C-alpha cells in the first residue's frame, strides 16, 4: 500500500529525514511515535505529497508522490496537528464544503456529507455550528472532512492531542471502525499507553531515522517478561525458536509477545525449564511498549 525507500528531506541547515525506508500494509493502523523534532510530521507530509523529498521516494498504491501528487490527493485524507474549521458554518455546511473542495459533484455532495457524518457519529449534530462543538466533536468533524471523499489512506498528525480521556477512547474506537471499513491509517502520536487500543504496528522515528530499522508489531496477544536467575547467552535464540515475537532480549531478561492462550504460555515455560534455563520471573508485562520505545531512542522523552 505505502512504500517508502531511502527518503531524505532537508530544511535549511537541518536534515529532518535521513534515509527512511518503510512499508505500510493495506488495511492496517500504523502509529508513528518519537521525540519532538524527530521527523514524524515531515514524514507524514512527504507521504501526503505536500513536501518534495531531497532524494528517495514514497509511493502509495504504486503512485509516486513526486510524479502524481494530485492523483494521490484524490485517494488520501490528511489531518494536520493544527487544523481549522469554519466555526460559523453548521456541521452540514462544513462537510458539504469539504466534499465540493475534494471535487465531488454538486448533486452528490450532500450524500457524501451525510455518509461522512454517519461514519464519525455526527448525524445528530448536522445543524449545529462548528464553533459550538466540544474539542472531541471538533476532532470528529475534522476527520469527517478528511474522509468525505472516501479515501483509501488516512494520515493523522497527533489526533488525540488535547482530548480528554473519554474523547480519546472514542477516537480510538473511531479509528478502528475506519480501519475495519477498509482504510489504511497512519497516526502520529506521543501517547504510548493508548497505541495498543487501535494500532497494529508502531514505527519509532528518532533523529530522522526509523529506530531499529523496521516497524514493531503491537497486536501480539500477551506480553510476557522472562527473567533468569543465571544469565545465558542463548536466551534470545532459544525464544526465537519458540515462535514468539521478541520485543526485547539480553542474556538474563526478555520481553516477548505471544498468543493469549494460557496453554501456549504453559508450553513456553515448560520448554524453558526443560532446556535448563533458571527461570526466576515469568509474568505478564504492562510496560513492554515503553521499554521498547526507550531502548530504541536511548531514553529520549
* Helix amount: 25-40%
Low-confidence stretches: none
Structural class: alpha/beta
Main beta-sheet strand count, sense and barrel state:
7 strands, mixed
User: How many β-strand runs?
Assistant: 15
Q: Total number of helical segments?
A: 10
Whole-number average pLDDT? 91
Strand content: 25-35%
How are the SSEs ordered, and which strands pair?
Blueprint: E1 2-11, E2 14-24, E3 29-33, H1 40-47, E4 55-60, E5 63-64, H2 69-74, E6 76-79, H3 91-101, H4 106-120, H5 135-147, E7 153-157, H6 165-180, E8 184-188, H7 192-198, E9 201-206, E10 209-210, E11 216-217, E12 222-228, H8 235-240, E13 245-249, E14 253-258, H9 262-274, E15 279-284, H10 288-297
Parallel strand pairs: 3-8, 3-9, 6-7, 7-8
Antiparallel strand pairs: 1-2, 1-4, 4-5, 9-10, 9-11, 12-14, 12-15, 13-14
Helix pairs in contact: 3-4, 3-5, 4-5
What can you tell me about this protein's structure?
The mean pLDDT is 91. A hairpin with a 2-residue loop joins strand 9 (201-206) and strand 10. Helix 3 (91-101) packs across helix 4 (106-120). This protein has 301 residues and is of the alpha/beta class. It is globular and about 70 Å long. The strands form 3 sheets. Strands 3, 6, 7, 8, 9, 10 and 11 form a 7-stranded mixed beta sheet that branches. A 4-stranded antiparallel beta sheet has the order 2-1-4-5. It has helices at 40-47, 69-74, 91-101, 106-120, 135-147, 165-180, 192-198, 235-240, 262-274, 288-297, and strands at 2-11, 14-24, 29-33, 55-60, 63-64, 76-79, 153-157, 184-188, 201-206, 209-210, 216-217, 222-228, 245-249, 253-258, 279-284.
